[in-house]
Each structure stands twice: as C-alpha cells, then as structure tokens.
User: What shape does this take?
Amino acid sequence: MNPQKKDVTVLERHRVYDGYYKVDRYRLRHTLHLGGESDVLLREIHERGHVVAVLPVDPHRDTLLLIEQFRPGAHAAGWDAWLLECVAGIIEPGEAAHDVAVRETQEEAGCRLLDNRLVMRFLTSPGASSETVALYVARVDSTHAGGIHGLAQEGEDIKVHVLPIDEAMRVLDDGRILNAKTIIALQWLRLNYPTLKNDWLS
Assistant: This one.
C-alpha cells in the first residue's frame, strides 16, 4: 500500500436531478499516485442514500428468509426483474442502522428481529454512487414466516421465501442470486454459520 496522502479538491457541486433519487454533478481534481494533480474531472454521482440489509436466519430450524420483489434496474439491464434478496431499507434522517433493521424485517418479512449482528459495511458502486450498505445477519423465528408483505403506499409487493440453509446455498451456487448484497450475505453465512448458530443457541 502506498502511504502517500491523497486529496480531493471539489471545485463545484451542483444538483442536476432532484427526484426520488438525486444526481449531483461534481467538478473536481485529485492527487495522482506519482505526484501532482489530475486534470479537472466532471463526474455525476447518484445520491441514493444509505441502506441497511438484513439476512434473517432461524438457527432452531436451520432456515433463512429471502424476499422476492420487482426491481426496475434489473429489468432495465435486461435481466429477470423479480429478484431473491435480503430484507433491505433506506436509513432515514435521524435513524440508527439497527432501528432500520428491526423496522424492515417486520415490514418486508413479517418477522420480529430477535437478535442481530453487523457483518460489514461496504460501498455498492463507488464509481457512480455514494450509497453504502450496513449488512446484518438477524435471528428470527421462521415458524409462521411466509406470505406477501410490504407497504402498499410505497408500491411494495414482497413475497417471503423460507429456505433451508443448504437449499439457499444451492440457489446461490446455481447463479440464481443476482443481488450483490445478498451474495455477500450468503457467502458470509456459509463461512460463519456453525459459529453463529452456536453463539445464538448457547
């Protein structure tokens, strides 16, 4: 790793779109690896907000919950528009990430969050978006999980799938999980489930 201090100089920031999502145009320059500064760059940044994602897991039954919903970005990419995903929601002003995890697990999956653990935080598309994800794995009781959930006023039509963990890993390996945060969550669970289960049930 190069210990050289790196700086960014923002010359101008201007909002060019202010709808459901926001887009800001930046004029900036940054230091170069070999010294000096870059030319002035023009970059548009998608201001998406910050997200909490939750993988609900039932260690008593060795099951997990995935939700299925319509995703217009997947449709625009020419992919199947109904994706299997983790529970997720945007952090509203003044909210803590843990509170969003509790709220979204109830709204999208119909389950009460019994315990949770922060897995990691990451950027989703740092070349074009400021969005970050706080990824949690959460303990739930999946006994009565299932059905259709979501908030009608937000246009949500969310189907809950309860899968044995082994089956979920086969779905992952078959390439049927197309959402990046869900792939990360399942791969983490594959590596850590025995320890996680022991912690939760001890």
User: Anything to note?
Assistant: The chain has two domains: 8-47, 51-201.
